[in-house]
## 1
Amino acid sequence: MNRPEVALSCEDCGKSVETLPTFTSFRGQETYLFHPIVCVGCLMETCQQHSTECANCGEIILPYSQVGVLKDNHGKNLVVHMTTSCLTVGGAFHGFWGKGQLLNFMEIEAC
């Protein structure tokens, strides 16, 4: 069954988005973004403004990335990459890094 083509537009600027996922490389990290629908220019701007630093390796974490969450000695949330080398939280605390803030943070009860 053929699906009708739907015109996609950037949620940030309204320009046409040609393909999904939106793909770009920022500071050596590739990102493929399905949601939200944004153009490459807006994705690059979001990466420049809202990337954060991984608390374990010091490299950047791009917006809309899944992250692990650590608590520092003062109760502040710190984010880390969801990789075996950075994720020291055992997968029990995770969320998504959004535009400069932690989104959809979950704590999974460990047995």
Note: Strands lie at 22-26, 29-33, 52-53, 60-61, 65-71, 77-81, 93-97, 102-107.
## 2
Amino acid sequence: MKRFNIVILVMIGVTILATWKLGKDYSAIQLQTRILIIAGGAILSGVLTYFLSKRDVDRVDPKPDK
């Protein structure tokens, strides 16, 4: 469940930043296109975060003995 919380937070962060950036610098783009760009970025960042935040504790190498 903790993994999904991180994914949701990243998606919200990307949505807020993309909305601000597109509204500030690219206001000539139509609103519908901006919404599609924002949604695509949020979904892509959520999927990447979900797969990159896996915890493989069984596959961690043990510490080398000295």
Note: Residues 2-54 form one domain.
## 3
Amino acid sequence: MSMNVQNGDAYVFLNKNLTNLKILHAEFGGLVIYNLKLERGTIQLPEMDKEDMSGSLTVAWSELVLMVQGLSLSQCTRQTRWSPRKK
């Protein structure tokens, strides 16, 4: 893995049943672990490449928030926003 939690990356850990999610994230005072345990249902994962089952997947922070909120990633659409032209 070429990620570094000190550079703002977060590590997400899931159990086999997809009912428990832990996030390791660096804050100003140190490392923080967030824990989400579902009483009902499972966590919806984004589509993964079936050939590359390395167990690691890169997702945007907004996609991670959708996963934690319980929203389906495949049914959500992103609205286009203005962004300045790159020179």
Note: The longest helix spans residues 61-69.
## 4
Amino acid sequence: MNRIILSSALVTMLAMPALASEGTLMLDEGMKAKITQTLTDQGYEVRKIQIEDGAYEAYAIKGGKTYEIYMDRDLKILRTDD
């Protein structure tokens, strides 16, 4: 009985990262660094990064103006609001 429960728990735990990677964005320090570098290369000064409505949202300054930049999981800019 214990082996069945343990096996079920193990299978569930192994499947969780695959499920999470399908629809959930993760925002760890590594991803923040990638977003910051991508936007810095485009001339932005990044102030804050968060996840909003299924996209990465960065608050950044460029040319004295503040922007909200929305990016997908591949770090392609979806839209920019000022």
Note: The two ends are 59 Å apart (CA to CA).
